[in-house]
Amino acid sequence: MSEIPTIKPLRKGELSFSALEKGEPVSTVSPYWRMVDPANLLAKRLAGGPTFIRERPAAEGWGGGGIVTA
User: Is there a contact between 43 and 53 (Cβ–Cβ < 8 Å)?
Assistant: First the structure.
């Protein structure tokens, strides 16, 4: 079983999520939701959780949720 990374990704997620809630533009935050699969255990530990990670790319016009593959 692999270990889930903790401190840095979680803290970045909290800061980004908090900034978005305060009305900061997406261009000023770390878009962690683009790199995390909402089905991954890490998604449950990040700010916003799997639902936010699934819905945020669609809100940005990516047309779907989950990991963005450009």
Answer: yes
